[in-house]
Design goal:
By secondary structure, the protein is of the alpha/beta class. Helices cover 43% and strands 17% of the residues. The protein has twelve helices and 13 strands. The strands form four sheets. Strands 1-2-9-6-5-3-4 form a seven-stranded mixed beta sheet, sandwiched between helices. Strands 7-8 form a two-stranded antiparallel sheet. The chain has a two-stranded parallel sheet with strand order 10-13. Strand 1 and strand 2 form a beta hairpin. The longest helix is centred in the middle third of the chain and has 21 residues. The chain is globular, with a radius of gyration of 20 Å. The chain starts with 19 loop residues before the first strand and ends with a strand. It binds nicotinamide-adenine-dinucleotide and glycine (GLY). Glycine binds next to loops. Glycine (GLY) binds next to loops.
Length: 383
């Protein structure tokens, strides 16, 4: 077993004002993440972006009716024409036919190389609009307008864009950075509770992999976060973005370190693909997947049972599942292993897991199948 990457994050800093900016430093692809209340309607949120006659707002049938008109109004001073395309909602639509609807809209409106794409939605819209921006005319500028907690703390930041394939999650995509990320905390008010919990999974993730002080803060504030206390959410989004910006700034294209951001994802992706996309939310898979990955870390002798239990309690308090579903009535563990082999971290068919290498530190490792099978057998229940 080999250590491929370890992470220890920059020092914790205390919460600041209602509006905050986190910089993501990637040389000529650097950009800012704006975090705060009232950002959507504020013309200033959209100034200083690439100038273009036209813009396309990519959203979905849930978010569009709630927020597209307000975004379009705020964008009008910056673009002579602002078009909107609404995609069907849901992970099950993160696919080729839905992606093609973005290209249909771009071509239908005569979009040119300068046209700016605004992704208004959660991670599904963001990943698809980003992939469309990466490939339309070999690349047009795009802006992430993140409307779920998950998107604000993770998916909108760092330039991973993709669609799913029936055989594997996020298997077709590109690294393509947005020009800005805008996280208006007010829009989280309309998020269904289950989606808020899904976002909390990605917030919690940053603690065990990078920042135990942040993990303690989340434990102290989990009830406030579930209750959507604005200052608690502002701090959670900011600290999550700081850690993600720090990781991505060092390893934009995941040649090593960035893989630690996938803590819980190898198990989680197996749940998503195994049950069918959309059955469990991505964040639910990640939440439960972190418990399994922590149990694997324990079996590898890297953390103790007390640490795993602490993490599981927090994940449960966030409203997330901690017991994974059986994925096959006959050879459950075998099916899990089959699904987990279809992972971008796999090398020559060998599954590589993000494990906790001591509190606040993550590493990427392979593990004997027998050990993984034991973790699955102990932690899965009939769906
Ligand atoms: P999502 O985009 O499906 O949004 C969740 C649900 O909330 C949807 O029904 C959506 O319409 C609705 N919604 C969004 N904003 C809303 C609002 N403000 N009010 C009411 N409803 C709202 O799911 P998600 O959890 O945001 O993202 C999950 C996706 O992100 C997955 O496909 C995952 O693979 C991807 N992801 C990508 C990265 C990355 O780095 N690119 C990181 C993590 C996850
Ligand atoms: N969400 C994992 C990453 O951005 O790398």
């Amino acid at each position: 077993m080999t250590d491929h990457a370890t992470l220890s994050a920059p020092a914790f800093s205390s919460a600041g004002a209602v509006r905050q900016t986190v910089a993501i430093d990637l040389g000529e692809r650097s950009y800012e993440i704006l975090i705060g209340q009232g950002l959507l309607d504020d013309v200033q949120s959209w100034s200083g972006l690439p100038r273009a006659a036209a813009a396309l707002v990519v959203t979905n049938t849930t978010v569009g009716p709630l927020y597209a008109a307000r975004l379009v109004a705020a964008l009008r001073p910056h673009h002579a024409a602002v078009h909107v395309v609404e995609l069907p909602d849901g992970e099950a639509h993160k696919d080729w036919p839905t992606l093609n609807r973005i290209f249909d809209a771009l071509l239908g409106h005569g979009a040119d190389r300068k046209t700016v794409i605004y992704a208004l939605g959660g991670g599904v819209v963001g990943d698809m609009a980003g992939f469309a921006a990466a490939s339309y005319m070999r690349g047009v500028p795009f802006v992430q307008v993140a409307t779920t907690l998950l998107a604000q703390v993770d998916s909108s930041v760092g330039g991973k864009t993709a669609i799913n394939h029936p055989l594997g999650k996020n298997m077709i995509g590109a690294f393509y950075q947005p020009r800005r990320v805008v996280c208006d905390l007010d829009v989280l008010a309309t998020l269904p509770p289950r989606e808020l919990s899904a976002g909390l999974a990605e917030v919690i993730k940053y603690g065990p992999i990078a920042d135990m002080e942040f993990l303690g803060w989340i434990e102290d504030n989990i009830d406030a976060l579930v209750a959507r206390d604005p200052s608690a959410l502002a701090h959670a989004v900011r600290r999550s973005c700081e850690i993600k910006a720090w990781v991505v700034g060092q390893d934009e294209r995941e040649s090593g370190l960035r893989a630690v951001l996938n803590f819980g994802h190898t198990f989680g992706h197996a749940i998503e693909a195994g049950l069918g996309y959309g059955q469990w939310l991505h964040g639910e898979g990640v939440g439960c997947g972190m418990v399994l990955a922590a149990r694997l870390s324990e079996r590898l002798g890297l953390v103790d049972g007390e640490f795993v239990e602490r993490l599981a309690v927090l994940i449960r308090r966030a409203g997330l599942p901690v017991r994974a579903p059986r994925l096959d009535a006959n050879d459950n563990a075998g099916r899990w292993l089959e699904l987990m082999r279809v992972d971008k971290k796999s090398e020559a068919g060998e599954i590589r897991f993000v494990v906790i290498d001591g509190p606040g530190r993550a590493a990427v490792r392979s593990a004997p199948d027998a050990l993984v099978r034991a973790v699955i057998d102990e932690n899965t229940v009939a769906a």
